[in-house]
From TrEMBL:
Disordered as annotated region, ranges: 1-47, 285-337
InterPro entries: MORN
Protein species of origin: Prorocentrum cordatum
UniProt biased composition (Low complexity): 298-308
Gene3D superfamilies: Histone H3 K4-specific methyltransferase SET7/9 N-terminal domain (2.20.110.10)
Superkingdom of this protein's organism: Eukaryota
Full protein name: MORN repeat-containing protein 5
Keywords: Repeat
Keyword Acetylation found: no
Length: 337
C-alpha cells in the first residue's frame, strides 16, 4: 500500500484574503441564510487564490471555508463538496491529477464513512473508510476480473472475506494483513479443493486436500507442505497413513492395499526403506506408494498485476485498493512424495 503524492490535507489549507466583509455575498454583499446561531454569517464568495496556489470558490464562515465549495489544486486535482472550518467534511468528491476518483463521506479532511474509490487504471473499492483507509466491510475489484468482498482493517484485508480470481479459482475464509490466515477453503477452477488452516498464505496446521480424480489427503501441513501425521487415499482404495516431512513420506507409516492387506513400514525422504512386519522385509508385489497423481499449480499472477500495485492513492494518506498477498498464492499444498 502506497501513500499518494497529492494531499487531501491540502483540501483545507490557509485562510481567505479579507477582500469582503464577513457575512456578506461577494457580489451583492447580501448576508446568506444560515442555521440560527451566534457569530459570523456564512457568505458566498467568488473564486479566490489561497496560499500555495490553491483556488477556492464557495461559501465561507468568517475566515474559514465552510459550506459548499470547490477547491482546485495547482497540479490539477479538484475537490467539490462540503467544508467545515476549512476541512472537507460531509459528502464530497475528489479527482486527483492522475484521474483517481473518490466520492463519499469525509471527516476532518479525510475519507471517513461510506465511499467509492475508482482508480484511473481500474481498481475500484466500494465500502467503508476510516481516516483515509479501507476499514470495515467493502468490495474491491480489478479490471482483469479479480475481486474481493469482506472485511478490512486499517487498509488491509483482515477478518472474513472471499477472494475470486479471474480464472474461477476462489478462496473463502479468514484473512490477516492481506494474507490468507486462519480457517479457509481454497477451490481451484478445475475442481481441486483444500479446506483447513492457513498461516501467511500457506497451508499450515490441519487440512483436507481433495483431487478431481478421487484421491485425497487429510492431515497436517507446515508452511505449505505435508508435515506431521497424515493420510493419503487413492481413488482405488489404497491408503498411506503415517509420518510426513517437507511434503514427503518420512518415518513410520501403514500402507493399505486395495484388497485390505496392510503393511507397516519405514520411509525416508519419500523412498520406501523396509517393512516392519515379522521377518518379511522385502517389498511385496504391490504398487509402491511413490508418486501421487496430479500436480498443484496456483493461479498465476496477471502480467500487469505488479504494475497495478504501483498505482498511487487518492490523497496523502489515502490507500487505494491493492491485492497484495492475494495476487497469486504461491505457497499452496505440496503434493509430491
Amino acid at each position: 500500500m502506497r501513500h499518494a503524492e497529492e494531499g487531501l490535507e491540502e483540501i483545507a489549507v490557509g485562510s481567505a484574503p479579507s477582500s469582503q466583509p464577513a457575512g456578506q455575498d461577494g457580489d451583492s454583499g447580501r448576508p446568506l441564510p444560515r442555521p440560527a446561531a451566534s457569530g459570523p454569517e456564512r457568505v458566498l464568495r467568488p473564486e479566490q487564490v489561497l496560499p500555495g496556489g490553491v483556488r477556492y470558490a464557495g461559501e465561507w464562515l468568517g475566515d474559514h471555508l465552510d459550506g459548499e465549495g470547490t477547491q482546485t489544486f495547482p497540479d490539477g486535482g479538484r475537490y467539490e463538496g462540503r467544508f467545515c472550518r476549512s476541512l472537507a467534511e460531509g459528502h464530497g468528491s475528489y479527482v486527483s491529477s492522475k484521474g483517481d476518483i473518490y466520492e463519499g463521506q469525509w471527516v476532518a479532511g479525510m475519507a471517513h464513512g461510506s465511499g467509492k474509490f475508482a482508480g484511473r487504471a481500474g481498481p475500484t473499492y466500494l465500502g467503508e473508510w476510516l481516516h483515509d483507509k479501507q476499514h470495515g466491510h467493502g468490495h474491491e475489484s480489478w479490471p482483469d476480473g479479480d475481486c474481493y468482498e469482506g472485511e478490512f482493517k486499517e487498509g488491509e484485508k483482515s477478518g472474513s472475506g472471499r477472494f475470486v480470481w479471474d480464472n474461477g479459482s476462489m478462496y473463502e475464509g479468514q484473512f490477516s494483513e492481506n494474507s490468507m490466515h486462519g480457517e479457509g477453503v481454497y477451490l481451484w477452477s478445475d475442481g481441486r479443493k483444500y479446506r483447513g488452516q492457513w498461516s501467511n498464505r500457506s497451508c499450515h496446521g490441519r487440512g483436507v486436500f481433495t483431487y478431481t480424480d478421487g484421491c485425497s489427503y487429510a492431515g497436517e501441513y507446515e508452511h505449505g507442505q505435508k508435515s506431521g501425521e497424515g493420510t493419503f487415499t487413492w481413488a482405488d482404495g489404497r491408503e498411506y497413513s503415517g509420518c510426513w516431512r517437507k511434503g514427503q513420506l518420512h518415518g513410520l507409516g501403514t500402507y493399505t492395499m486395495a484388497n485390505g492387506e496392510r503393511k507397516r513400514g519405514e520411509w525416508q525422504e519419500g523412498r520406501w526403506v523396509r517393512w516392519l512386519q515379522g521377518a518379511e522385509e522385502r517389498l511385496p508385489a504391490m504398487p509402491e506408494p511413490r508418486g501421487l497423481p496430479g500436480g498443484l499449480q496456483a493461479p498465476e499472477e496477471p502480467a500487469h498485476a505488479a504494475a497495478a500495485r504501483e498505482l498511487g492513492s487518492l490523497g496523502r494518506g489515502m490507500l487505494s485498493p491493492q491485492r497484495s498477498a492475494c495476487d497469486s498464492p504461491q505457497a499452496l499444498p505440496d503434493v509430491s512424495l
